[in-house]
Amino acid sequence: MEIEIISFGQIAEFINHQKIEVDGIADTDAFKRYLEDRFPTLKGMKYKLALNKNIVQQNTEIKNQATIAIMPPFSGG
Amino acid sequence: MSEKNIKNIFVNGPIAPAFIADSIAKHSSKTAIGGHSIFMGQVRKDEINGKFVSAIAYTAYEELALEKMYQIREEIFEKYPLKCMHIYHSLGTVKAGEICLFVFTSSAHRKPAIAACSEVVDRLKVELPIWGKEIFEDESHQWKENS
C-alpha cells in the first residue's frame, strides 16, 4: 500500500516529504517501528503522528493512501 | 455536522503594530463591549551559549492547526461570555523585537476577556502544530522548545 509521509520542524531536516510503497504496516505502532528503523535519529526524539490530519492518541489502523505527518513538540507563540 | 467556519490565523512575517491598532479601532462600533484583553508575543533576543537569537522562522501544519484552533475557539466561546475573539500568528521570519502572536478578546465586563485571552494563549502554545526555528546572528539555528 501507499503512504504519504510529511514531516515538520526539526524532523523535516532529515525526513523529506515522500511517498512510500510498503506492505505489512497495519497500524501506527508498526509505522513507528518502520520509521525508527529507517531513521534511527528519530529514536531519541519526542514526536507525534497525525494520521490523515488527526493527531494519533492511540494505536490506529492505517489504510491505503494514508497521509501521515511526523511532528516534533510544538513551539508556537 | 453543521458547516464549520474555519478562520485563518496565519500572517506572513511579523504582525504590524498598525494592524493591531486598526483591529482595536474596528471595535468602536461594537458598543456592547466594555473590556478588551490583548496579548502580544514578541520575539526575544535570547542569549544561548554566547550567541544571540536574531529571528524566529515559524512553520506550521496549517490545515491541522486551523482545525485545532477552530475547536479551541468553540470551547472558549462556550466557556466564557465573549463578544469577540481574534487570533493571529506569524509564519515565516520574525526578527527579534517584532510581534509574532496577537490574541484579542472582548466581553461586556473585563474578567471573561482577561481569562479567555490567557487561556487561549496557553492552549495554542501546547496544542497548535507550529514550530519556531531560532536563528542566531551567525545564521546557525536551533529549534525552539516551549517551556
UniProtKB/TrEMBL annotation, chain A:
Gene3D superfamilies on file: 3.10.20.30
Top-level taxonomic group: Bacteria
SUPFAM superfamilies the record matches: MoaD/ThiS (SSF54285)
Name of this protein: Molybdopterin synthase sulfur carrier subunit
Source lineage: Bacteria, Pseudomonadati, Bacteroidota, Sphingobacteriia, Sphingobacteriales
From TrEMBL, chain B:
Residue ranges of the TM segments: none
Record's keyword terms, sorted: Molybdenum cofactor biosynthesis
Classification via InterPro entries: MoaE_sf (IPR036563), Mopterin_biosynth_MoaE (IPR003448)
UniProt enzyme class: transferase
GO biological process assignments: Mo-molybdopterin cofactor biosynthetic process
UniProt-listed Enzyme Commission number(s): 2.8.1.12
Catalytic activity: 2 [molybdopterin-synthase sulfur-carrier protein]-C-terminal-Gly-aminoethanethioate + cyclic pyranopterin phosphate + H2O = molybdopterin + 2 [molybdopterin-synthase sulfur-carrier protein]-C-terminal Gly-Gly + 2 H(+)
Signal sequence segment: none
Keyword rRNA-binding: no
Pathway: Cofactor biosynthesis; molybdopterin biosynthesis
GO molecular function: molybdopterin synthase activity
Lineage: superkingdom: Bacteria
Family matches, as PANTHER family: MOLYBDOPTERIN SYNTHASE RELATED
Family stated for the protein in its record: Belongs to the MoaE family.
Assembly and binders: Heterotetramer of 2 MoaD subunits and 2 MoaE subunits. Also stable as homodimer. The enzyme changes between these two forms during catalysis.
Protein name: Molybdopterin synthase catalytic subunit
Record organism: Pedobacter terrae
Species classification: Bacteria, Pseudomonadati, Bacteroidota, Sphingobacteriia, Sphingobacteriales
